[in-house]
Fold each of these.
Amino acid sequence: MNFRLTAIATAGLLVAGCLSYDQGAANAVAAIGRGDAASALKWSEDLSDSDRSSRLGVVETGRISMLAGSNTLAEACFRKAIDAAIDHKEKDPVIKLGDAAGTAMAATMTDDWSMEYYLSPYEINLALEYGILAQLFNGRREDALVDSRLAIYVQDMLGDEYGADLKKKEEAGGTGDAEKTRGEVARIAGEQNAALNEMIAATRNSWENPVLWWLTGILLEADGNWEGAKQSYRRAGTTGAGNPFFEADMKRADTGAPAPLAGRAKLAIIFEDGFVPRRVALKIPLRLYATMSIDIPTYANAGAYVTRSVSFAGPKGASPAALGLNVRSLAGRTLSEAMTGIVTRNVTRAAVNVGIQAAGRASGNDYMKLGAEIANLIMVCARKADTRTWVTLPDAQYVWCEDDMEPGDYQLGVTVDGVSSTIPVSLAAGETKLLWIADAGGGLRHQCAIIGKR
């Protein structure tokens, strides 16, 4: 009996270890909101030192640093993240996506926490975007241009490689009652994807980032590479259909009218709203095995993103910003794409547990029965849904642009859901400037960078 109690206590400790990530992530987001970057960085830097979550910890550290205005650390983190995600040793860069479709079988004695974390496509694109922004804020425009060209390549390759991988998802299978197992996987995955439908409806896939296309277009145009800029603007207008700023630049690309005009200035703005929802664990009872259940990740607030009213007072009066990137939708779609693999692994592990119990009972040996029960208890209790994801990302990004601004010093009016504030901006003739604003709690945070001059 004491042995059994010891096993239960051990299982409890394992569960506590799994839950520590969720609590740490929640604490880090809360710390950022109250301006406590040091506490948030302690969490992310510890994560970056872990064996299986180092890639995630690096981008979390970069993002927290950028929100705190520490651009040197942010740039270094995003450089490290991109170098880890993209192999430059080949003739052409190779993107490291791990198990793209999320269907590889992990060891049945462990759970998905034992798998190494790889950045998903939307996280890679955002790491590229933030790396470019950090370089610009550090005055390293040439490096930002290099990574802009890399971003163009990566976005093209994600569509070709990751999209193709998703089409090759393995058929959910198992051992023994294979048809029943496949049916159970299909049922659970279908139910969970249906729950995510409202969240993912705003995007057509999980790897397109129209804001990144638009940013590369602005950089290339300011550098005098009009042909390259036109390609990026067209892709932004296509992937971000309905966004008036993307569509205006796509039309400019078709007419060949560069901006800003002689003697005028251009101001582009990226505004970020809040934080993307965090994943939580959801326990699902199995119909196959009445005494068993599995834990899978889901989103506690899985509804569609609710747009905010964001406007900027330029020289021609206040005008609204437009939603450029729905990060919440990308996050939900990524989970949806991985759901079949997640459920498959967990149902297969449950089948292993049932087999262990059955073998223990069939042995007729009390010690074998107890040993099987203890082993089963430890494995079941230790398995918790893998809720790791980049939690300090914004819920969404908005964009605003004015190509024809009079040079001078501005107190730019910013109004968010009826609450107004001002941000100082200075513009010189022929200058293209980028203003980045984040609403992450505790007031607006902003940084500005000169992209180029004509």
Note: Confidence is low (pLDDT under 50) at residues 1-18, 100-107, 170-176.
Amino acid sequence: MLICLAVDYRRADVATRERFHLAEQRMGEMYRRLIGGGVSELALVSTCNRTELYAWTDGSGQGALERAVEHLASVWMPDEVERTQLLTTLTLRIGDEVGRHLMRLAGGLESQILGDGQILGQVRSAYRTACEMDTVGPMLHRLFEIALRTGRRIQHETSLSTGRNSIGAEAASVALRRFGTLEHARCVVVGCGKTGTRAARQLAKLGATDVVLINRTPQRAEELAASLKGRVAGIETLHAEAAMADVVIVATGAPTYTVVAATLAAARRNVGNASAPLLLMDLALPRNVDPTAGELAGITLVDLDALHPPIVAAEAARRSAVPSAERIVEAEMRWLRHWLATGAARLAIRSLHDALVDLCRREVAFVAGDGVAERTAQRIAAKLLARPMNVFSDAIARGEDVGELAGHLDQLFAAPPRRGTTGEHPVLVPPASASLATSGAPLA
């Protein structure tokens, strides 16, 4: 069955999301350990607003579901107390709802900013990483392919992604509303990834002429500065540049604070700006700005949660495109339901199919040779099993549990273990819940 465990901005504030965030440095280790406990396929989507695990389990029923969730949660949060808190915070989705959620996510319908222009690329990158980790099989391959196609269709066929639709661009607009004009404001952008780049470009578009770019890799900052006629500063000058700024936007991938409150306070005193107005925006997760910086005189600290109300107001113009986007999601869901039903049916009759193909191959090879045996055996098996496939697919689509019958088929037709091996032939039971529209509720 398909399952998804998610912690996102809808049910968790930035401090909670930060706590359960899976840093990029842990990805390799996490992927190696997450496979197991009934989980045979796995992909991880981690952005500033969410951490989500997508998994395929070979078993079906409540027992298999609980075992898979417990395994994933124990790897995600090894500490028992933290794991208990994770389980009360996360949202569990099963079956159809996993597919619908990922399609909506890729299309920007689940983003903090409606129609977020970055999320499709983030989902694509997460899928690519999972493929590189070799944890994606046929079920998740098809799930992500359909989701990415859905996201592209929503971008190209609707106006959901028109206008300002990224965290970085929205942060620049917040700065404009705060100061009225950015013409004489000194703006510092720390981090020149996608979010920082969008913020810098939007600042320039809104009239900022003094834009300072800071990045751990200078070349990236220099390329962006050349296109914006901005200035590049070294990472070691971060606090000094922030002390002289009117607007500072921080969006790096650092796992710790890059802006330290005490260091910033000292730098502001040194340049005579101890209480000067400073709009300090932290767009990163984990947070890059020491939260106590917001307590310093003259500083207004805006994090991802504080940025949400103006985002809600700004997205009203794009809401008219939501019905069209939702129709695209539902159209693609029909393809996904069909795949889940037929895919699970293929698993259910796999042992019968393999036994039949093997028998046909040997018999045809006896009279016609190996050259035509394989193709002929596959054709015979496909024709004979077409009706059983349809029966299984229809039953699974109706939500019926075909696990017992699949188990009997496996017991009757599965190939015996090779000599010298131990254990039984694995039974890949198709989940009755594979096409059920369930959950979306928190796991208590």
Note: The first helix runs from residue 14 to 20.
Amino acid sequence: MTMKRLIPLALAITAGVFAIGACSPMPAPGTTTTTSTTVPSPWPGATCLDGAGTDGAAAPDLLFNGTPNARGNATFFLTYVNGSFSLSGNGTCGGLPAGAITVVRAASKSAADALCVSLNSGTNATSFTGSPWTLPADAWSCDQTISL
């Protein structure tokens, strides 16, 4: 290729590079730009979720198996005290397994509802946000209780 042909080719490539760069807004001189990434809260592994000191009356202990979006992944227990049964609520998840609920991980209520339906665990999800249990903001409970 001769020099006469290379110059127009080089100019065309340079013009194309500048045109691509023109599409990206440039920050004003002396300013900086930042990028933020939303990182979801870490999910707990297998653990006993205490009902925050409610002694089982309002919020029983839940033995979460560490796997979200699995049917029956959180078990609650009955204890026998002074001749009667009550829900375990002392943070030990002790006693006899009595039932289970399904905990799903979803970004919205509609997504959580769909997960509950797909897992055959009910049709209505309730957020754990503001509940006695400490779980990430994207944790939801399906409305079906599974008897054991």
Note: The two ends are 81 Å apart (CA to CA).
Amino acid sequence: MFNEKYNYLKKDRNWKEKNKEYLKELQSFLDKADNIEDESLKSKVVGQMLRCDDILTKLAEKEFIKFYKSGLKNSKKE
């Protein structure tokens, strides 16, 4: 069962894109980035933010897995 849930999480990386607050803030960032006149700078800023977002997503998914494993382990004890 754990492997099934873990594989689902690895495949479904859209969990954050379904969050309205995340989408609102992402759109706000992109709107502000659109106002950067220097295209090279704009590209670097957006690219860096996307790399940070990817790292944060991976960290969050690791935490989900850790909490899931912990809950699974604790449920087996009871």
Note: The chain has a mean pLDDT of 85.
